[in-house]
Please model this.
Amino acid sequence: MATERPFASSHIYRLSAYPKEVTLRDGARVVLKPMSPQDGEALQRFFLRIPADERYYMKDDVASPQVIQRWARELDYDRALPILAWVNDTVVADGTLHRTRAGARRHVGELRILVAPEYRSLGLGSTMIQELANIANENGLERLTLQAIADKEIAAIKAAEAIGFGQVAVLTGHGKDLDGHPRDIIILEMPLGEWFNWWVF
Ligand SMILES: CC(C)(COP(=O)(O)OP(=O)(O)OC[C@H]1O[C@@H](n2cnc3c(N)ncnc32)[C@H](O)[C@@H]1OP(=O)(O)O)[C@@H](O)C(=O)NCCC(=O)NCCS
Model:
């Protein structure tokens, strides 16, 4: 089991707003917190409750205990900042802000969002996107992207567009469904800084 320890990148972002309680559309309350090294097992249980045909479209093999244990062990907010949504001891959503550690792409972040099926369509996905966009904006990132599988991840597109993302590109056939048929990947993008501040307030 992972032991509690300080980790290298715990102060990259200003995260004083967390833990933060939010109320969903049905009145349920969830607590948002940046992931800690000791959260690996709860995160693993969360991913195992996601239907296999959805896990198939993710960029990582999240059903693998080795993958999640490595994430928890090597947690590095500078590379990937995961915000987890909790109901008591259960993770019900995971949203991550990814960026390169250095170089030409450092000002751009990529968001990935996953909500447990029983907590969907309650505004949690939009809330997670908004939280991560706020963090990115406050910390000087200039642009955010989010990728979604066309005709499959429709809720992600809707939730991202509600926050201010726009569709900027289609990567034709860059995905394949479980039957091997090509699926397009839609790239959504949102500028931060002045535009974002205007959009939010
Ligand atoms: C995408 C996802 C995170 C959204 O989470 P969520 O908590 O349901 O999001 P929200 O409730 O904030 O908003 C989703 C919106 O999409 C709508 N929606 C859901 N399914 C839909 C569908 N098949 N067609 C059209 N709209 C749909 C919801 O009604 C809601 O709109 P509303 O706020 O106007 O009611 C969640 O569906 C999920 O985990 N999907 C699987 C993983 C995924 O696709 N991730 C995206 C890749 S980054």
